[in-house]
Automatic annotation (TrEMBL):
Family annotation (Gene3D superfamilies): Helix hairpin bin
This protein's name: Rop-like protein
Keyword Coiled coil on entry: yes
Family: Belongs to the UPF0437 family.
Organism: Magnetospirillum sulfuroxidans
Length: 65
């Protein structure tokens, strides 16, 4: 597998994970005040995944993909 293909696969995987994290955050917000204690954890996971996704997309773009 080439570097570009590897980066594309990473972007796809991170995109799926980030979308799920976004939905988890959305679901949590709809259920408030139930489980309000988990807001920082769920939000941090969502933030981290979107940061990784952004970096992976930038890496792919820099690699010419």
């Amino acid at each position: 597998m080439s570097d570009i293909e590897t980066l594309k696969a990473a972007v796809k995987k991170l995109s799926t994970q980030a979308t799920q994290a976004k939905m988890d955050l959305h679901d949590l917000s709809e259920e408030l005040p139930v489980n309000w204690e988990s807001i920082p954890e769920v939000a941090a996971r969502c933030h981290d995944l979107y940061a990784k996704l952004t970096q992976a997309r930038n890496d792919l773009k820099a690699a010419g993909g």
